[in-house]
Structure formats: structure tokens, C-alpha cells
Write a structure and sequence with these properties.
Rossmann fold, 207 residues, alpha/beta, five-stranded parallel sheet
């Protein structure tokens, strides 16, 4: 990708426990990708450290960034904590000539698609409600009340699947991994993304 070309942006969404972070990691194994690290006001969970998936900041700092227009998108989740995508990651991807990968919820995805219509949105679907509940319980991080709230939110999020370009059902891990990588590789091969390269090749033929 040439430096002047706009980055291809990939949005990955899915209910909590759907396995989207694992699939994002698989996308990031592909050369030429950059992860957008979100900001959040929620406290880190066990084994989480700042800077990998999230930067954990205060509500005051989040509000300052909002007012300064530093977010591409932001949303409040469960009526409690704020999450946002710093605009600087898009600038960084553009400067480095990389594709940008965003792991965000359906609210954020809608905002990004409105601002960046060429962004490709991938929805990660759990195989069933029962399987999703088992995955959430296996993490051992949430109370029964919190689990029920997450399951209810999962249903609400699933209703937005039609707003996405692709749906990957994460029932069999290896297949889901192949599918998300195939989506990225296929998008890179679209004529709209390759036309400058093809034109240069055409010139070599004297065209």
C-alpha cells in the first residue's frame, strides 16, 4: 500500500465471550496490519495490562479527549464505562501504510461506518446462547447478575448483524480463524485497492 493511500479499516464486533479478541489476534498475524488500542474508563480485569487492548484512563481524561475531538468514535457501555477509538491510530496507519484493525462494539461500529464508509465490518457470532453463557462463566470474572446482563446485551447486539459486511460464526476455532483472515486478504485484492499497482504494471506493457 502506498503512503498516500487511505488505510483499509477493518471493524470487528461481537458479543462479550464470542471470541472476537482471539480472531483479531489472528488478523494481526497478517503482515501490514495495525491494532487500534481503545481507551476506556473501566478498571482493568485480572491479567489485563494497559496498552495491549486498552489504555485505561480516568473519566476526566476521557472527557478531555472527547472535547478535543480526539476520538473517531466513543460510546458508553452498560450505562457505566466509556470506550473510545483515538483518531491518532488512523493517522498512524496512514503514515505507515498499514491496514487498521478496530475491535469495537455495535455503537462504535455504526459511528465508524458513517465516517468511513469504505471500512469493512465483521461481526463475530457465537454458536448459541448456551455456548456463549458457558464461555462467559468459564472466565470466572462475572456475577450471575452481570452474566445475565451480558447475555441480554448479546441478544441486542446480534440484532444488528445486518449492518455488517461479513458474519463469522465462531463455532469451530480454526475455521473461524481462516475465515477472518480470508476476509482481510480478499479485501486487499479488490480492484479499488489494487488499481494503482495494476496501472503501473499496465504501463510496463506500454499501455
Amino acid at each position: 500500500m502506498s503512503e498516500e493511500k487511505e488505510p483499509q479499516v477493518f471493524i470487528v464486533s461481537g458479543p462479550s465471550g464470542s471470541g472476537k479478541s482471539t480472531l483479531v489476534e489472528k488478523i494481526l498475524e497478517l503482515p501490514g496490519t495495525l491494532l487500534s488500542v481503545s481507551c476506556t474508563t473501566r478498571p482493568p480485569r485480572k491479567a489485563e495490562s494497559g496498552g495491549k487492548w486498552y489504555n485505561f484512563i480516568s473519566e476526566a481524561e476521557f472527557e478531555r479527549m472527547k472535547q478535543a475531538g480526539e476520538f473517531l468514535e466513543y460510546a458508553q457501555v452498560f450505562g457505566k464505562h466509556w470506550y473510545g477509538t483515538p483518531r491518532r491510530w488512523l493517522d498512524e496507519a496512514r503514515a505507515q501504510g498499514l491496514d487498521l484493525v478496530l475491535e469495537i462494539d455495535v455503537q462504535g461500529a455504526a459511528q465508524i461506518k458513517k465516517k468511513l464508509p469504505a471500512a469493512i465490518a465483521i461481526f463475530i457470532v457465537p454458536p448459541s446462547r448456551r455456548e456463549l453463557e458457558q464461555r462467559i462463566r468459564a472466565r470466572g470474572q462475572d456475577s450471575n447478575e452481570e452474566i445475565e446482563r451480558r447475555l441480554d446485551r448479546a441478544r441486542q447486539e446480534l440484532e444488528h448483524y445486518g449492518e455488517y459486511d461479513y458474519a463469522v460464526v465462531n463455532e469451530e476455532k480454526e475455521r473461524a480463524e481462516r475465515e477472518v483472515q480470508s476476509i482481510v486478504l480478499g479485501a486487499r485484492c479488490r480492484v479499488a485497492r489494487r488499481q494503482d499497482q495494476v496501472k503501473r504494471i499496465l504501463k510496463s506493457f506500454g499501455g
